[in-house]
Predict the 3D structure of the following.
Amino acid sequence: MGNSLENRALTPLLILPVVNRRAELLRGIRRNWTLYLLLCPSLIAALVFYYYPMASGFYHSFTYWDIKRTVWIGLENYQRMFEDPITLAAWRNMAILLIANIAIVLTLPLLGATLVAHVRSSVGQFWWRMLFVLPIVVPGTVIVFVWRWFYGMDGGLNIVLRAIGLGGITRWWLGDPHTALWGIIFVAFPWIAGLNFLVYLAALQSISRELLDAATVDGASSMRRFFYIELPLIRSQMLVLVALTFIFYIRSFDAPLIMTNGGPGSAGTLVPGLQMYRAVRDDLDLGYGSAIGNVLFAVTFLLVIVRSMVTRLRTGKSGV
Amino acid sequence: MINNLRRNSGQIVITAILAVLALITFVPILTLINLSFKDVYQFGANPMGITFPLVLENYSLAWKFMRDPLWHNVVIGLVSIAASLLMAALTAFVFARFEFPGRDFLFFAFLLILFVPSTVLLVPTFQLIIQFSLQNTLWALILPYSAHQSLIIFVLRSFFAELPAEMFDAAKVDGAGPLQQFWRIGVPLALPALSAMAIFQIWWIWNDYAWPTLVANSPAARTAVSAVIFFNDGMARPEPGAGMAAAVIAALPMVLLFLITIRTFVAGLTAGAVKE
């Protein structure tokens, strides 16, 4: 704030430009009113379907809220969430899915993309890419649906196991608490057909041929070339994909919803997002659902901030 | 000579590994197609092998159930893509080509939305839809999907910003306002980018499961993927083959769209990958 006496002495000098600037601002707004008009549709859409729901969800997380009534109950929803043993199981499952999927995103899609990028003929490259894009085009729900059958008692996995003489370990894979979560992780194995693959491939294909050829002429083996040239050059894409995987698996719950509805048992494959969904769908408990949604939002936001801080520390400039 | 041989053997190894990976990737999809042609006995006796005769009735049964949901998807997709692209492109154009007070603040407000996870919006948006009695109507999907614009705004703004100013000078001399500049110069140039974004929108709209199942799980508004699960798990209790056929029917339009627009589709997915 500074010294108040000094401030008072300075006021007359300061006020003039402020007034001028405000008048100028108003003039600018009046002169550009058509531009604001053109922005209105998007702005209204953003306000109604993003900013209003965010505010409403924040406020109502402190209330008992069904469609008819809103009753202020303070922190009760959050308290209930933290005391519910199911919550702990849900967050644990989410953590397992997160770690597994980060391991996935760093390995097989990268392997697939690297192999495709090293196919010598460009026609071959094109067709391999198309082949691995095709399953991305098939709706995820359909893929999850097939895998659900695959894990069933009479499903493909058990048939294969019986055929190779491992009939002893057949089971209903999604009904067994020891295997259900693994079942969800293994959906879409070997995980190449995904957006991660496309991002890696685009990054690898943008590396200049001359650079790689020069390394080959210098006698670098393909392994060395990969670890010393290609991998460092696509590191930023890898970091982006890891961050996106984090954010995605904090909110994603389609696979558990379709395959197990959170079971077996009370929380075999439950994740917080599904906990929220069930609060709304089964109990119409919108206040509790909002509370879970807000905690997930807070965690996501924290991660985004931590990440941009890490980036800033390392590079000395701001990152998103 | 030896060098050549070594390079070729490298290519063979790459092809072999890719072929194995592709095979594992495609087995579930091929199994789905195979199962969709089986009656209940063939399904039980030999689910993995190919059995004859192929039971085409599965498809006529599934089609009866999937016809309306597919139509809903088309309507929802077309309307919300037209609305979101039009609004977002206009907004992106204004942000990219004009100076006005508050521009950076407003752009930031749109940018911020990119970081808001859909989970936090699900509950309050659900309440909003109920409040206006839009549940189980197509509007429950069209309206929120049309508002899904921040990624398009972000992508198109950088596209419009890179256009050279000279392109717009002639139009300005002719007295064309922002809207005419947008229609006559901006839109025609942005058509490839617009179609990539349109593909990305239809792709995720077609994929969306949790939201339509929550707000539109009725015959009047059910979407395709939601209908596949409802058909299999609900009261309908179809023959298993027909249930599989429904899943194939839900996927087919996207596969066809992909085959028609290969390059645009890949461009749309790659642009969208950064967000989804």
About this structure: Chain A has two domains: 1-31, 79-315.
